[in-house]
Amino acid sequence: MDPMARHDTLMFFMACLVWTTCSAAPTQCHFNSQALCEYDGKQYSMGESWMEQGCVQCTCLHPVGVGCCETVHRPVDFPPWCEVRVESLTCQVMLVMTSDPRLPCIPGEDNNVDPRHGALNMKLEG
């Protein structure tokens, strides 16, 4: 690959990193100049992408390396009695109760009391 094409490829990947990092929901990206364009026994060529385990999409930037970014946008502002769960097959994000992950956690005015204190449906007087 000529130096100009290599430079253009790097600039494209860096622009993707900036766009992803500056979007409303944070994601993480990384670039590995030593990585090969291979995953799960399959070879990829320049510009081809694949989905790795953990909802990470990678793109072959041969011969300069491989760039990968999370595809999941995790919520960052939720009550401490909630936790984020990511379904690994569908990459769907769910906010669930820490005490019982089978139950959804819906933060808001009507659900602003920590359920560990036994006051889930009780309104605070004040």
From TrEMBL:
Any GO MF annotation of the entry: cytokine activity
Swiss-Prot/TrEMBL keywords: Chemotaxis, Cytokine, Disulfide bond, Inflammatory response, Secreted, Signal
Signal sequence, renumbered to the chain: 1-24
Pfam families in alphabetical order: PSP94
Single Gene Ontology BP annotation: inflammatory response
Cross-referenced Gene3D superfamilies: Beta-microseminoprotein (PSP94) domain (2.60.40.1900)
Gene Ontology terms: cellular component: cytoplasm; extracellular space
Localization in the cell: Secreted
Primary site of residence: secreted
UniProt KW Membrane keyword: no
Function: Acts as a ligand for C-C chemokine receptor CCR2. Signals through binding and activation of CCR2 and induces a strong chemotactic response and mobilization of intracellular calcium ions. Exhibits a chemotactic activity for monocytes and lymphocytes but not neutrophils.
Family, per entry: Belongs to the beta-microseminoprotein family.
Protein name (database record): Prostate-associated microseminoprotein
Lineage, uppermost ranks: Eukaryota, Metazoa, Chordata, Craniata, Vertebrata
